[in-house]
């Protein structure tokens, strides 16, 4: 249940970054000095190939990241039913740091002098639309799967009656044991699409999410198989048919 803390940090921090980038993009404001130092450390001041579309792409991705964190926070508070399981203190600290770093990573995709006070011109491309559609599709399925998991521990009236595990059915659970992890991967892929496919830095973030979620899914899949003798044999751990 302390995963809730991760999303609180993300909503606050990435919301702050989103506001600052919006101000720089549309109001001609300058990014804070510490952000400029961060850009310099990563060599962003030496890269002049950024176009207006890439500025807008970064703003969209930061918005999608904030919306994702806000939804997950709402689900942790209002939907999910957590067991008494614990996480390691290192994992907890890493989780807090992750959502700070991932938002900063998006911000580092634009130069420090985003607009220099010039009037902004929004350019919407096909990959923005595709990315947002994939994001919405994956987010809806992730929410449905989390509701299915929560309902396993609730009565029909919505009261929590158990903290034990059960076999989930419905939606993407018919194909994989951990569809909410698969949806998480698709959400990050959708952000890579929104950035225009070619952003190597964000694809490294996608690779991290892939390995992280795959490991968690395999461990969860093996737990289901050991705990329930009647567990569906056709289900995969993480990615359908793989």
From TrEMBL:
Its EC number(s): 1.3.1.22, 1.3.1.94
One Pfam family from the UniProt entry? Steroid_dh
What chemistry does it catalyse, as a reaction equation?
A: a di-trans,poly-cis-dolichal + NADP(+) = a di-trans,poly-cis-polyprenal + NADPH + H(+); 17beta-hydroxy-5alpha-androstan-3-one + NADP(+) = testosterone + NADPH + H(+); a 3-oxo-5alpha-steroid + NADP(+) = a 3-oxo-Delta(4)-steroid + NADPH + H(+); androst-4-ene-3,17-dione + NADPH + H(+) = 5alpha-androstan-3,17-dione + NADP(+)
Location of this chain's protein in the cell: Endoplasmic reticulum membrane
* Membrane-crossing segments per the record: 12-35, 55-74, 81-101, 121-140, 181-197
The family annotation for this protein states:
Belongs to the steroid 5-alpha reductase family. Polyprenal reductase subfamily.
Report what the protein is called. Polyprenal reductase
Source organism of the structure: Anseranas semipalmata
Q: Which gene encodes it?
A: Srd5a3
